[in-house]
């Protein structure tokens, strides 16, 4: 297969790889990067491809291996290895250990805000929080299922607005 024919075949299969890249990375920019790396590796290693074999499967394998390699590199970079004698610098770096006080304040504030909700919103919300299904809540409260879903949605929305100070950046 000539270089031109190989390039044409790569181009034909590139769009079928995009959903696989999205499934692996779960981000469109990372998926585009993975697609580009895959195509580059395939093109630079075209001499290793055997004519008559499945090009699409070969590309999927390259993409999967590229993703795994990149993931392992990121994990290695994030690992802190202490090389000091007697490990004097264990708390260096950007690692913080919380003692749970902030979590208690947050939970206290959350439950306080829930208690301030009107009963028509609070009761379905708490039942859903306890694990009841929508239809079970509807039967218990003798309400249409759409009303139950709407009230839970409005309760969540209200709590989200009131508790925006806890929003993670």
UniProtKB/TrEMBL annotation:
Domain RNA polymerase sigma-70 region: 12-76
PANTHER family hit by this protein: RNA POLYMERASE ECF-TYPE SIGMA FACTO, RNA POLYMERASE SIGMA FACTOR RFAY-RELATED
UniProt-listed GO biological process terms: DNA-templated transcription initiation
Tree of life domain: Bacteria
Protein name: RNA polymerase sigma factor
Pfam families: Sigma70_r2 (PF04542), Sigma70_r4_2 (PF08281)
Family (UniProt): Belongs to the sigma-70 factor family. ECF subfamily.
Organism, as annotated: Echinicola pacifica
Keywords carried by this UniProt record: Sigma factor, Transcription, Transcription regulation
SUPFAM superfamilies referenced in this protein's UniProt entry, alphabetically: Sigma2 domain of RNA polymerase sigma factors, Sigma3 and sigma4 domains of RNA polymerase sigma factors
InterPro entries: RNA_pol_sigma-70-like, RNA_pol_sigma-70_dom, RNA_pol_sigma70_r2, RNA_pol_sigma70_r4_t2, RNA_pol_sigma_r2, RNA_pol_sigma_r3/r4-like, WH-like_DNA-bd_sf
Domain RNA polymerase sigma factor 70 region 4 type: 110-159
Any one GO molecular function term: DNA binding
């Amino acid at each position: 297969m000539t270089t031109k024919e190989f390039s044409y075949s790569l181009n034909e299969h590139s769009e079928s790889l995009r959903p696989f890249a999205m499934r692996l990375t779960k981000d469109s920019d990372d998926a585009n990067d993975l697609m580009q790396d895959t195509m580059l590796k395939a093109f630079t290693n075209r001499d290793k491809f055997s004519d008559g074999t499945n090009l699409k499967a070969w590309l999927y394998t390259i993409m999967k291996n590229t993703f795994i390699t990149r993931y392992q590199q990121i994990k290695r970079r994030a690992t802190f290895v202490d090389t000091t004698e007697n490990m004097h610098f264990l708390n260096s770096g950007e690692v913080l250990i919380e003692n749970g006080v902030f979590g208690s304040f947050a939970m206290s504030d959350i439950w306080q805000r829930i208690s301030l909700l009107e009963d028509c919103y609070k009761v379905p919300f708490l039942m859903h929080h306890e694990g009841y299904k929508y239809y079970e809540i509807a039967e218990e409260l003798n309400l249409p299922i759409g009303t139950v879903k709407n009230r839970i949605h409005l309760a969540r929305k209200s709590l989200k607005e009131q508790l925006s100070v806890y929003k993670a950046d």
